[in-house]
Amino acid sequence: MSAAASSDPLETVVLVNPSAGKGRGARAAAAALPVLEAGGHRVRVVVGRDGADAEARARRAVQSGCRALVAVGGDGLAHIAVQAVAGTGVPLGLVPAGTGNDLARYLGLPRADAVAAARVILAGRSRTIDLARIGDRSFSTVLAAGFDAIVNERANTMTWPRGQMRYNLATLAELRTFRALPYQLQLDDRRLSTEAMLVAVGNGPSFGGGLQICAGAELDDGLLDVVLIKPMSRIELVRTYPMLFKGTHVTHPLYERHRVRRVTVAAPGIVGYADGERIGRLPLTVTSMPRALTVLA
Q: Has this prediction a pTM greater than 0.85?
């Protein structure tokens, strides 16, 4: 492992989160690295002390020149890697090892086989996809800005239990008191004032490990999908939740969708999460960035 910046354009920089997926990140790296090396990649592994350090190291590697940046971890590490390669033309490879892996899911990458994912990288086939941008941050999947974001906020304050159960308990806790929120939306040149349970802005279709909140969103159409779930009872919200995994909620009468190039989302007291990462309090303005990311897929 090395913290030094690379100046070798043939070097593949592998960014690893060993703790992703309760240790799956370390195991995935151990499986994928020999495959990349045997396939002719000169590999340098980078492990950050924390998210900010990992991002800084990834940015330095890309700026100094490298063949590709490969992220071995979950959506959080993919989000970090995206910040480093967005708009540079340096391709991003993914070896999924997290609990969500939504970007990998959309790209059709192997999500439970690190060796197979490494072989996709070796094949060298690339495609260019869009990103969404908020200020100086880019995201690849979905911005959550409603009930789902409130659940994230509560879950992040909990130390027990771990994994998906923590989010399940946070959901139950928030359901007891949650009410529809008043939103102000600027949809390109049109303003909309409404109430909703949540507003999601999708560059891609899913978040949270396959929740298809923005079902039908394409990562290469130059547009953002803005989805609203209008006010409903708590019982109806619980009943509708399983539909998100199949995308069948799009037929629900309280579902609303807009397709735009730019949107500003405002609601009192809500913090937005993009790619599962805390971005900041609303209002937030999201802009589509067509063809901003090259991926190996």
A: yes
